[in-house]
Amino acid sequence: MARTKEFDPEAALQAALELFWRRGYEATSMSDLVEHLGIGRASLYATFGNKHELYLKALERYDRTGLPPIVRELSQPGPALPAVRSVVRRYAAEATDARLRLNGCMITNTAAELGPHDPAAARHVERNWDQLETVLHSALVRAQAQGELPAGRDPLTLARMLLVLLQGLRVVGKASADPARVRDAAEQALALLD
Q1: Which of 46, 63, 140, 179 lies deepest, with the highest CB count within 10 Å?
Q2: pTM for the full model?
Q3: 62-192, which class in CATH?
């Protein structure tokens, strides 16, 4: 007879996500995960696979919870440019928030730590960035059609610039104690939308 799980896999995945997000992939050992999740090593392997598989599942969970609110905000009917500005300013605020900035963004952290040598992680990062770029592009196309964005601006290149800016805000915010650096960069980029 199969044994029933003595733990909640979703709660365990969330706990793994939080540990990986705080410490990174390389600095988190299987022993750390066993201790932090409070489950046995065999149960951990049976449920999630090895450390790498668990990390990718945690990354997917992060993506499922982080991107949909941005998609909803940028897809709302009505003026699009205020929503784009709101998203950029929220990224800047989160990047300078004392409680949030040291963890940074798990997607950005993954890009920096694993992207150069881990194809599975790099594919996940690219997929996230493609989705964010697409929703920014769509919002900017809508803004241009509604007369909010000058006709001479290219919504695709602006979306790509904003994507790179948002990722950069997360990196600089994580490493810099000067919030003005992040806020000023965000506002300067937003001025390009006028």
Answers
A1: 140
A2: 0.89
A3: mainly alpha
